[in-house]
Write a structure and sequence with these properties.
This is Active breakpoint cluster region-related protein-like. The chain has about 375 residues and is of the alpha+beta class. It has 15 helices and nine strands. It is elongated, with a radius of gyration of 25 Å.
Length: about 375
């Protein structure tokens, strides 16, 4: 969009003036070049599996982002002013297709696209946080990633406190209205494996977390997406089933029988030992817990497929069509009630994640097996 507008600005029938084009797209070419270099570096580093230097180079050029963010409010004001004064520009800015050469192109307004670079800083910081957690301390990338994460967090802190006070006040007002709609333990299919996750549906976004149990429960943030940025995919069963890891039905039936037998053993041991809990009983209970957790992760087969605007897809497995319809209905209703959501900052996500033990309505995975 920027190139044709820039070319038209010097013609006899300009849509925008050269100054307006420069104001709206200030630092956009520089950001594009920065991320193209980063992407090319990642591709070239696949064999060596060393990426720390690339993230360091990226965060050391955050000044480009600062300049973009400082101009962001003026850029939006110019877009809105041009929208109201020129119908040609209004039509151009209202519907911009991204990914036209893919099977699923997505349409955005110009204002939505201009918000994405700000959101990208938060996403990069979250990616760095997760990457560092999965990088051993002895790995040569560890100190580089640690420094890059520190620089990125400091930058975000400065943005949140100094450059975007109005956005922060809007987020504060919105967070006061935010409430938990539904939560529950679901099985997520990720990297070819089934993983038990706690999914939280808030009034404006969806958050996936991993429960860490101990003296005090806490959650690890896995991912989150605004409801306005997601779609629920309707996939034909044969399109997705081959990609879902599944255990043989015979094994699942055997585990159910094992659970039933283990419960009978526990009841018998309780009858014979009315005193303090002994080691045999504790061992049997541990066996029951492991079997039930295995069953919870491996028995669901009904897919719930979520796709985000940035191109990421998430697949959950549910136990029944009824449960699937329930989740879909709640997500659709919440999304339709909140059409003006804005991206959460890293600090918002971290604060919310730390408060999940107090907010949740489902305390533990449903450790109950269905015995036919």
């Amino acid at each position: 969009l920027m190139k044709p507008l820039k070319m038209a600005a010097s013609s006899s029938q300009p849509v925008l003036s050269t100054l307006q084009v420069q104001t709206i797209f200030f630092q956009v070419p520089e950001l594009l070049e920065l991320h193209q270099q980063f992407y090319q570096g990642l591709r070239q580093s696949q064999e060596q599996q060393l990426v720390g230097h690339l993230f360091q180079r990226l965060v050391k050029q955050l000044g480009i982002y600062r300049a973009f963010i400082s101009n962001h409010q003026l850029s939006l004001q110019t877009v809105r002013k041009c929208n109201s004064s020129d119908e040609r520009f209004q039509n151009l800015a209202a519907l911009i297709k991204v990914g036209v050469y893919t099977a699923d192109p997505t349409s955005y307004t110009l204002e939505e696209l201009l918000l994405m670079p700000i959101d990208r800083v938060t996403r990069n910081t979250l990616a760095l946080h997760d990457l560092l957690n999965h990088t051993p301390e002895e790995h040569p990338d560890h100190p580089l990633l640690q420094e890059a994460l520190s620089i990125s967090k400091d930058f975000l802190s400065g943005v949140n406190k100094e450059i975007l006070p109005r956005k922060n006040s809007e987020n504060t007002a919105r967070s006061k209205r935010r409430h938990l709609v539904k939560d529950g333990f679901l099985v997520e299919v990720s990297d070819g494996s089934r993983r038990l996750r706690h999914l939280f549906l808030f009034s404006d976004f969806l958050l996936c977390a991993k429960l860490k149990q101990g003296k005090q429960d806490y959650y690890k943030h896995e991912w989150s997406v605004l409801l306005t940025d997601l779609t629920l995919q309707s996939l034909v069963e044969e399109d997705i089933v081959p990609t879902i890891p599944a255990e043989p039905q015979e094994l699942i039936n055997d585990i159910r029988k094992t659970i039933h037998q283990t419960r009978l053993e526990i009841q018998e041991e309780k009858k014979q030992n009315r005193g303090p809990v002994n080691k045999v009983l504790e061992k049997t209970r541990k066996k029951l817990l492991d079997s039930e957790l295995w069953l919870i992760q491996n028995s669901p087969t009904v897919p719930l497929c979520i796709h985000s605007k940035i191109g990421k897809s998430y697949t959950f497995l549910l136990s029944s069509e009824f449960e699937l319809c329930e989740w879909k209905e709640q997500i659709e209703q919440a999304r339709n009630r909140n059409l003006d959501s804005v991206p959460l900052s890293l600090s918002d996500i971290m604060k919310l994640t730390s408060s999940l033990p107090q907010l949740r309505s489902t305390m533990r995975p449903p450790l109950q097996s269905n015995i036919d």
